[in-house]
Amino acid sequence: MEDLNRRTLLKTGGTLGALGAATVIAPATPWTWSPAESVPGVGSGADPKGEWDPEADAVIAALLDRGEVPKVNKILRSWTKNGQPLPAGLPADLRDFMEHARQLPAWTDREKLATAVRFNQKRGTYLGVLYGFASGMMSTVIPKEARAVYYSKGGADMKDRITKTAKLGYDIGSLNAYQPDGEMIVTCVKTRMAHAAVRHLLPQSPHWVHVAPEKKPISQADIMVTWHSLPTTVWRNLQKWNVPIAPDESEGFLHSWQVSAAMLGVQDQYIPASWSSADSQAKQVLDPILAPTPEGKKLADILLGLGYNLDLSLLSRGVLGALTRFMLGDKIADWLDIPREPVWSPLLETAWGPYVAVREGALNVGVPKEAYWLFDEFLRQFVLFYMSELHMPINIEIPVINNPK
Ligand code: HEM
C-alpha cells in the first residue's frame, strides 16, 4: 500500500513537474517517536511538525521589523569565538536572547566531547566525503529543505550555502569545537538566528508560498530531518562499510551532534539518546520523505560541479555522480538524473568494501594496488578540497531578503 501511494505520488509529481510546478508533496505522517527515546527520556510528545523556535523567532522578527539586522550583522562579524563576550551595541532584546542561547545544555558531557575529537581525528578522511557528499547530496532530496534553501537569499549562491553546511559538519569535529577558543557555539547561535529570519521572510516569498506545503518553514521536525542527513547518515554509511568504531568514540560522536541540535534550538525531547533511537527516528522522519523536486535537482547539479574549478582531477562530475549513486543508492541517483558511471560505479561497488577493510587493518590483501591508490588519492583530494574551498571563516549572517529570482 505504501509503495502504491509513493508511486502514485511520484507519478502525480512527474506531471506537476512537467508543468513546472512543485513535485511530490510527501504525506504528513503522524509523529509517533517516543520522548522515552530522547536525551531526557521524557517530554510532552507534541508533534514537532507544529513546533518552531518561539524564543528566537520573536526576537529576530522584531529585529527585522525594526530594520536593525544590517547593523547587527556588522557588529556580529567580530563575534567569532565561543568564549568571547558579546560585542557592544547589540539591541537589548537580542543580547538577552544570545546570552541565553550561547549556554551549552546542562547535560553536556565534556568527556564525551573529548572522545568525539578522537573519533573525528581517526575518521577525518571518511568524514570529508560523507559530510560533503552523502549529507550534502541527501539535502537535495529533502523537499522542504531544498525549497527553503532555493527560495531564500542563500539560494542565489547555492554552492556557498551547501558548502557552509558541510563545513559545519566538519567543524563540529575540530579539536576545540565547543571550547572557549573554538567556534561551534557561535556558529550554532548564528545559524539559529538565520533560521528564525527565514521563518519570518520565506512566508513573504511569492515563489515559496506557491510551492511549499507548509505555512512556516523550518519546524523542529525539519531540523531533525536535516540533522539525520548529517550524523545519522554518516553513522549508517560507516556501519555499512564495516569501519570499526570503539563504543566510546561512537557515543562521543553522537554526543557532539546532540549538543549541536540543542544549540540550534531543538527541544531536548526530540534529540535521540542513542544511535538506535536516532535510527528509529530517521526511519520515521527522514527515509519516507526523501523525494525529488525541481529545486533539489538544480541544487544537486551545482553540487556535482563543485570540483570544476579546482585542480583535483578525481572530483570530476562523473566520479562524484558515481559516489552519490554508491552512497545514497540507485533510487536517489535516478531521481537526480545522475547516470551510472562506467568505470567508477563498478569500481566502488566491488573494491570500496575491501579497500576500507585493508585500510582498517582487517585485511592484508584483496584490493589491486591501483584501486587502493585511487581510493586513497580520492579521499586525499576531498580533504584538500575542504582545506582549499572551506578554509575561510564561516561568516553566517541574518538574511534580510529572500532569493530575488
Ligand atoms: C542557513 C545549518 C536545518 C534552511 C543555515 C546556515 C547553516 C545551516 C550553517 C548558515 C549558512 C549561510 O550563512 O549561508 C543547518 C543545520 C541544520 C539546518 C546544521 C540541521 C541540523 C535547516 C532546515 C532548513 C534549513 C531543516 C529548511 C527546511 C536554511 C535556510 C538558511 C539556512 C533557508 C538561510 C540561507 C540564507 O538565505 O542565508 N543553515 N541548517 N536549515 N538554513 Fe539551515
From TrEMBL:
- What is this protein's name? DUF2236 domain-containing protein
Q: InterPro entries, alphabetically?
A: Lcp-like, MPAB/Lcp_cat_dom, TAT_signal
Span of domain ER-bound oxygenase mpaB/mpaB'/Rubber oxygenase catalytic: 129-348
Origin species:
Gordonia hankookensis
